[in-house]
Amino acid sequence: MQTITSVTEMQTRAENLRGEGRRVALVPTMGALHDGHLSLIRLAAERGDTVVVSIFVNPAQFGPNEDFAHYPRELDADLKKCEAAGVSVVFAPSSEEMYPKGYSTYLAEEAVARPLEGVSRPAHFRGVITVVAKLFNIIRPAVAVFGQKDAQQVAVIKKMARDLHLPVEIVTAPTLRDADGLALSSRNRHLTPAQRQDALSLSQALRRAQAMVAQGEHRTDRLVAEATHILSQHRRVRVIYAALVDRETMEAVREVRAGRTLLVLAAWVDEVRLIDNEIL
Ligand code: PAF
Predict the structure, then answer these.
(1) Which of 55, 91, 204, 268 is the S-S candidate for 238 at Cβ 3.0 to 4.6 Å?
(2) Could you tell me the CATH number of the domain that includes residue 39?
(3) pLDDT tens digits, residue range 65-74?
(4) Active-site entry in 37, 70, 190, 229
(5) Among residues 77, 4, 71, 97, which one has the least CA distance to residue 37?
(6) Are residues 163 and 202 in the same domain?
(7) Cα torsion at 85, 89, 48, 11 (round to 10°)?
């Protein structure tokens, strides 16, 4: 496995891989890799023949009150995990390499990025799609894999790739959950055991909504009311949003359409902000 920190070196390596006829599959990450990331890497290995993982804590996607400085950075451990997972190249640039002095170009997607996360984290997706577009330009992968847990992120990236005619296939990997149902996230490490118990209400609410739909309930107000009720029974949980939306546009829907409608949840569990979603 090769670790590359310079943009030009990564561009040359990627060009050589393409020259050898390799189908490069990219897994963009911010490091602190957990089993969820490893499942993205496994899917990337199925969809391409050379897996590149980027590890970059992207300052542009953190808001002023979000803790960029304290985001976990564990490069050595991450490299070992990538090596064990069969990754060919890790691209781990510095902030100065990605955003050199005088950097001033940012992208905005102006529809899918607006609701939900876009309301509470207004500049978040501007930062995400800017860095993802930069990674796509540097590496020019045939495929890029993202996790379904960040459903709006995937939808915004897909829209950006379509709008900008980027020749990359965006693949979505299913959410990986712990045995108790909690969706894997680097934020889970901040939960105390008691907070974790309350955090389980997110996956419980999603499962309940799925069960209601399976029993024929298609009224969105009923489903959202039930999900909110489950969350509100836990004293550490504060609901940020609970909504039924179209999986591509993130627009609110009036009726559940099988396979297209997502129940998306965001909540504070004390000081830890969690999101989760499931397709209904
Ligand atoms: O999901 C993440 O870890 C980040 O938002 C991403 C896609 C790597 C962009 O920085």
Answers:
(1) 268
(2) 3.40.50.620
(3) 888 999 999 9
(4) 37
(5) 77
(6) no
(7) 170
